[in-house]
Design brief:
With about 160 residues, the chain is of the alpha+beta class. Helix content is about 35%, strand content about 30%. The protein has two domains: about 80 residues, Elongation Factor Tu (Ef-tu), domain 3 (Beta Barrel), CATH 2.40.30; about 50 residues, no CATH class. This is DUF1905 domain-containing protein.
Length: about 160
């Protein structure tokens, strides 16, 4: 259920934020104190997390993209519409072609598949940020060596 409120954007430290009324946050589900939300600032869509503040209302940090998209600025009052974000995003990372080929050539596909889901995700996530082919090949070589040695704690870098 969407909740509507207006709030003045203020600066706290180096960040911009608004305080979310307690009557709204009381109706939202908290996860380890934080509240995942989706909403609009002056009609501009965003996804954020409300942050608890000791002896104060939950805080919604307003970043530059939200300010620009919502056509607002620090010190101005903006209209917010927020609701609980119930979608848990489990980001998937694609397997690089070089890794797939190396696993196939070395007959280690089963060894890679036997790694825990979180270990595979960590490896694929790391490889997704590698910029050069040289670095990719070096990291894949480390991984292949560990899989060949049946290492217990397979990881890169």
């Amino acid at each position: 259920m969407p909740h509507r409120f207006k709030a003045k954007i203020y600066q706290t430290g180096i960040n911009w934020a608004v305080d979310v009324p307690e009557e709204i946050t009381a109706q939202l589900l908290k996860q380890k104190g934080y509240i995942k939300i989706k909403g609009k600032i002056n009609g501009f869509d965003f996804t954020q997390t409300l942050v608890p503040v000791k002896n104060a209302p939950y805080r919604l940090f307003v970043n530059f993209l939200m300010m620009k998209g919502g056509k607002t600025a620090m010190g101005e009052v903006a209209e917010f519409i927020i609701e609980q974000d119930t979608i848990t995003e489990d980001k998937r990372y694609p397997m690089p072609d070089l890794l797939a080929t190396a696993l196939q050539v070395n007959n280690l596909e089963a060894a890679f598949d036997s790694l825990t889901a979180s270990r595979k995700k960590d490896i694929l996530k790391y490889l997704s940020y590698v910029k050069t082919e040289e670095t990719m090949q070096r990291n894949i070589a480390k991984l292949i060596a560990q899989l060949k040695d049946n290492a217990k704690d397979v990881r890169i870098p």
